Each structure stands twice: as C-alpha cells, then as structure tokens.
Amino acid sequence: MQGSPVVAFTSKESVNMFSASTAGVLISTYYMMSYSQERNAEMEERMKIIRGIDWGLLILDEVQMVPANQFRKVTSHIKSRCKLGLTATLVREDDRITELNYLIGPKLYEANWLDLTTQGYLANVQCIEVWCEMTPDFYKEYLAR
Description:
Blueprint (H helix, E strand, L loop, with lengths): L5 E4 L15 E4 L1 H5 L6 H12 L2 E7 L11 H5 L2 E7 L13 H4 L9 H6 L17 H9 L1
Parallel strand pairs: 1-2, 3-4
C-alpha cells in the first residue's frame, strides 16, 4: 500500500477523501459511520463516497459494540468483501453478543491473556482490593442501585 492514502473521518478531522478507484485506508469511528442525523453537505458527500466503495476489508475494533442498535448499521451501510472484528473483551451485558455471528461471522481465534502476559505481549497485572468508608447517605444510595 505504499503511496496509498490514509484518511481520517471523524467529527474533528476530515481530510480530503480519495476516490472509489484509489486504494486506501479509511480510519473512522462507529459513531461517524452510523450517524443518522442531518450532516453538512461536505460530510454527506464524503459518506456518499464511503458508501459507494466496495471495500476489500472492513476492520472493526471493539467489535462487541457492533450489535448495538446504532452501530450495527455500519455492517450494512459499508460494503466490504470481508469483515474482521477485534476485541480484548468479547462481552456484552445483554444477550446480543451472539448476533455477531451473522453481523461479522464466527470467532476465529482467541488468545489467553495469561499466555500473552507470559510471552511479554501484555503488561503484568496486579489486582488489589481497596476498601473505602462510605457516608451513611452514600451507602444507602449505593445499596438502592
């Protein structure tokens, strides 16, 4: 990909887009890709270009976010030949994690965090428990939740 453009498309940064016939890398966020409110003319034109490209590979970081109603639009609005989801925490508090199978595909690889730590890829973790006194009012509110 030497010489191919890398383009950021965020709410703070939006450099000139490449054309559909140019190879390139687009870096953005789920929010920017799934935003459904009215956009200014420049941003809407860029989204039109993005939607019109048949991307070779769509890489989705923090893939556990994709089943959310707002973010699942990314997998249907952005055309790609292949999807790759990445996450360190394949966990959701609801039962929607199973929806990733048809939104992205099945899990292909899982690494054990202890093995990654032993091999030097992750920092050693030290867990400690810290006890803090709570005021009676705060403790009452804490228990109510």
